[in-house]
Amino acid sequence: MEEADSCRRAAFEAVADVEPPQLHDLVESVLANASMIPGVLTIESAARATTPPLENAADEADFESVEIDTEGIYTHAAGVQLIYEGLGLTRTLAHDEPWTATSSEPIAAEADLEILAADILVARGFYLLARTDAAGKAVRTVQSFGRDQTHLEDLRRDDGQKVDARPSQSDPAAIDANLERDVLELAVRAGAAAVEEPPSPRLLALADELAGDVAPSFPPVEECLNDFSFSPSDRSLEEPTTDRATSATDP
Domain of life, per the record (predicted)? Predict the structure, then answer.
């Protein structure tokens, strides 16, 4: 899938200067094995945001020709992907904590390297999205992830006996799935922000539906993004045009 390959290349470029070599290789291996769904959805969001509605196809010539910054779109896509991979790796380490009394020294050392890799992935993702209209959502995604992992740790400490007013907040899988839901929303908003357009409400709804179907992990991008293949009909005249992507200064 061309979009996935383009996003992966942009992500590789963003971490090309990571050192030492052992850490660089680990970061690249995470990206090489990643499902690129967040990045591809970012690209699709940008495409939909810059295409006139199907209802106006007859008057398409009346629309101003807009020069698309393809490199900027791929940069936004890589930023979203990097943040997701970093948080996903952090989640894996939190679920199967390697720093236990019974862990061998090599296992603990590898885990130390992995947590460094996770930090770098998130930091580089933030750097790529800094000063964009998606930055605020990126910050909230990381904050929400931290709260969820703290809540999961509380549940584990209570052996799952803690009663919550909302059953989903006592289901570890549902709590973990919040990451995928937040990241897919970030992808839609980042793609729209890359072309300075409001995000598609329909695509936001589809992203939420996709998160419900596949979270708390993503399959290969080819298996589940066929429904997101670009079609001008997905941006109808009924969609509001006054909305804007989340700003970094939004509360």
Answer: Archaea
